[in-house]
Here is the input.
Amino acid sequence: VQLVESGGGLVQPGGSLRLSCVASGFTFRHNGMSWYRQAPGKGRELVASISSSGGSTNYAEFVKGRFTISRDNVKNTVWLQMNSLNAEDTGVYYCYAVFRDLWGQGTQVTVSS
Here is the structure.
């Protein structure tokens, strides 16, 4: 039973990254999924959520219009497309399976010139 994130890295301001989170060992399609992030010295905060079917999404105000969450229940994968990145987006990004109450290990995103 696990969630494995990937796709993080170092990107310049204004750039883009696409994070992936692959689920295994549980029924992915039964779970709403979320992406959280934790900046250095700060608490973990919700970035975006998607319903189990993918038909409903929600975003934190600070990423609206820049980030897009999506999922594929055949591939057991949820993605976070991040555009127009800025330094305040730096942090560790985690995916979370709501019904399962399961966290991934996180992937580091650093936005810097």
Notes: The chain is about 0% helix and 50% strand. The CA atoms of residues 90 and 96 lie 19 Å apart. The radius of gyration is 13 Å. The mean pLDDT is 97.
